[in-house]
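Wed. Picked up where I left off yesterday with Pre-rRNA processing protein. The coffee machine is broken again, so keeping this brief.
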Amino acid sequence: MDSELELQLKKLREQINSKAPHQQQHAATLLAVEETIKEQNTTAEPSGYFAALLTLLEQQAGPGHKGLSNAIIYLLSIVLPHVSSQVLRAKFTTMMAVLSQSLDLGSADVALLRSVVSCLETVLVSQDAGSWNQPIAQGTFKSLLALSTDSKPKIRKRAQEAVSVLLSQPPPPAAVHPAASIAVRFVLDMLSNAKADTQSAIYTLQLVKLTDMIWPPEEFKELCEALMQLSKLNTPFLTSLSFQSLEALFSNAAESLDEDQFRDLLVAVIDLKPNVNDSTSSESWLKIVQNGYITYASISTESCFESLPDLIDLVFPDIELGKQSTKEAATQCIWAMIRDCIPISKLGSEGIWQIVKTLTSGLSYRYRESWKLIFLLIAALFQRLGSFAHPTMDALTVEIANMRMEPEFQFKTEADAVLGAAIRAIGPKAFLQMLPLNLNVANRKDEVGRAWLLPLMKSHVRNAPLQYFVSTMLPLADNLVAQSLRFTSQGREIEAKVFIALYHQVWALLSGFCNVPSDIVVAFTPDFAARLASEMQEDPMLRPSICAALHTLLTAIQALAHKEMADGPLTKQQALAAEQHLARFAPDFLSHLFNVFAQSPGASRGYLVDTITAFLAVISTDEVNATFVKVCTMLDEALKTHKPPEATELTERYLEAHPPPHAHTMVDLAAIMIPYLDTERASMFTRAAFLLAQQSDDTVLQKKGYKAIVRLAEQPAGSPARQLIESSINDQLIPMLIESAETVSASSRRERLALISLLSQNLQDNQLHFIPALLSEVIVGAKEANERARNIAFDTLLVMGRRMAQGGDINMAILAGDSGSNSGTMQRADIQEYFKIITAGLTAQTPHMISATIAAISRALFEFHEQLGSDYIIELMSVVLMFVVNNNREIAKASLGYVKVISVILPKEILEPHLKDIVPAILKWSHEYKNQLRLKCRHILERLARRLGLETVAKSVPEEHMKLVVNMRKRQQRAKKAKEGGATGGHSHEDTLSAEVGAAASAVGKKSFGNAYEDVIYGSESELEDSDDERFVKAAGKNNRDRKAKKQLTSINANTSAASGPGAWIKEDTDGPLDFLDRLAFTHFATSDPASKPRRAISVPKMKNGKLFFEDPEEEARKARSAAAAEAVSARNGGENGVGDADEGDDYYLQSLKSKDGYYRAPNQKIKFHKRKAGDSDDDVEMASDNDDSTASAQQSVGATKRGKNNNGVAYGREFKSKKGKGDIKRGSIDPFAYIPLNPKNMKNGLMSIKGNSKKEKRARSSKK
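Structure written out below (tokens, as returned):
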């Protein structure tokens, strides 16, 4: 039986205990039918189910068995799709008779009708063309059509789907379904009555929209005309649906109409263009036109293009006037027609000029809001026209470039995309003729420079003639260097640096010109090659550009030359000729590249390696091997005089500025040539690499030796280098790795581990002793400080485990130094034996090795726990748990990591019985703060509580730690309350998950940058300080804040949108009046009021006595408030008295603020009067004679001195008092020696004291107390 049917029947059987009656009846009927099949000794196949159900349905015919009939028909709808077509054709008449009765019987039962429709669909689809001529088939199809307009949505939808499936699958060999004419007549009848019965017409249009079929040619035009007539009823939704239905019809219109009929139909559709403000209808109309013209182009491209310019001119205003969705639909329509409706023969015709004229009008100011879309269309036209865009689009290109050069132009990115498309289409030569760079200062008069085009050209020059660079761009580069030297001689260093930068930008264009040029054989001459080699040798700044260009040229040509079907700008023969031409220059270039490689620092050799590799790929193998022999000779000579570099010469700063020793360089060059070596040279280099890896004097050479061996082993299977490595594993490689284990340097461990991992992947059965021999080194590598080395160690651990799981025999005698192969020394290889080898590290004497072993066990168990037996897992767990209580923190930390792993991966049946051992062990560190051990313990307990339940875990917690359980229970309750509050408050599903999911689930559910093991071990380390409930509460608070902020932002945006109405503003220009006839006048326009934009106040310092003084914002604000209040008082007084004397009102207000008898309002809005002090009365001043000014002044001075004030009556140090802080500030004056003047009379016994702080006064105050 089909697996899909079996799955469906299995689900039905499980519904026997369902609470829904109809589901119980379905399951009971199925079980009864299956029991009948067993009694009849019939196989449980779809045909058997079908026969039994059909017989039972015939027996239940009649109104008295409605419920059982419903269940039988439902089961038939499930079984029928799996019954063969031959059986369904044979039982067609019987099925139609029975289902037709059910169709009439259950006209009001939605579930029954849906099942009947499903059965009818399956039966009718399997019938041939002859069966469709029978009246019963046609009548049944008409019933389905009637149901497709039923008022019940579920029935209507299912019937429409059935009709669509039937019409889209005509019986072979017919292309049009025999019932298509019936469907068309039904649709036409329903649409003819659309004005009276709009709802049925809408349902019919939905059916037409859903149906994907080839309509009858003789009725297709009539159907389209009926659809177009609906737009005249002025019913928006009906009009929109009619356009969408027309869109569906046009997808298959090419098979239904000839060219003339299709053209007439398109003209009629174009005449129905809706108002641009009706976005729904406009978008549907645009899609109809788009699909229609694309289909028309497939019928006759020439005829389609004749009306294309006028159509684009008709659609183009929608980009300006429509809504955003309409603008995008219009752009998509024009873009598709430019791409598919312009034939190659018409690329230079008059119609193209008309299209360019239309697009050029889009650069006017009225299209400014849609310039992004306009630029997209212009770029598409450049891409379609190619070289024919010159000179058709020259004026348009120049205008866009001029717009791009305006400083306030806002669409520079889009303009750059258009100019880039122009460069790719017409080439750099024609482009620079239109827009010259004008970089020659001497010859440039009033012409503007366009140096900004150089970076643009670098990104878009492709398949351009290389000769243009040689003849035009190289002289330009030389001229720029000459101008730079002239400026340098004149002492104008800035201009000199600018022209040097332009010089490098010109050379950077070489990479684009080398991207498959068509004239390689002609342009790449010996003189040009010599120039490249010379520049590469002399100018380090040009090396990356030249090497990138050569690498691009070689790789592109080689790819085309060795491609079976060359579809690029060059044919395969041309590519082969170009490759042979470049190969002639390869030896000389390799010589120069080797010299440059030796002179370059090690950090900047990557591009040189790529270029050397590209040249090695185009020369013969004999030449490569000859070059390799020369390199090996130089390597031998360099090693004779080589001295290990000092520690200072290995620093990163030193290596970035100085080339490495000559011996290191020769090893790197020899390693580059490994893929092209024959057997003899590969053997020579293999021996040299072994010797380099074994020496311990120079750690860098040792590291390069391991890298070379890895590169040899990475070669494809069957290559000479790979064969040598495979043949030397037993005799040379494994002994070398074992012997050199003690002398390997720290910097070489990563490469050595990579070599071990690579060798472990392809070990033969007689080489499995390699794994236990080097496994200890891999285990120690798990504790490496270098992250990459540590990851390689873990990967190697897994590679070894997978190889051991494949099986084989380990010859333990070889490990003991005995080459004999006694049967007693053979150990069977499997995953359990692999774990036994790993656990041997637990007997080590050092904590470092023990902790590394535990980490290795954790990683291997996480990967292979499903392949281990439960007994062995329990035994392993009991062993590792002994180390959890170890007093060494390094061992304990690794052991806690192991407990983390088992708390996630092991089944509950294994974990729960051992909680009495796990929980007390980890609680030993619950009071240890160092290394976050306390938090780790709590987190492990939370994991166990989530998996096994808090009450289960609490049973294993000792009495002295029960407070922790109480705390965990409270935290869970808080998390539950927070989650419920978040759910009622509208929190998102992600917020709920963040509180529910633990570390184990977070390894699967949350996005992680590491693997699953790292998520388990380290993924929750950053969450240790906050448990899940706290994280949920914080997340809920954060979401509330984010929601408030978003609401405020929405309010602000709404206010801003409401405030800014339609209109335009002109930016004032100091150069003179604005010329509105200038095409660049748009750069002075703005769509929003510049004055309405809030500008941040900038505090401008003021000059006083040669110093800068910043005004106090609080003081200025206070003055402004005082002035505003004074104006209000003055206005009020003027209104009451009829006299607008502002000075008088201002005097009254200031008097209330500054007078000793004035008042002020406290923060609580209560009125408080100014405090008065003794001798601070205004009456004393008023009592003085007006004429005796000198006496009054003297009295004021004496009184002020007594009260600690200056002559102006202001307390000393008042100007240095801060308003906000408790300290002092300085406002525009110099630093004083003291904020309060010192009184010489208070100086006694050589001590200086501030008045009031002398010893005498202190004693007096203390006596008073």
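Quick read: The mean pLDDT is 78.
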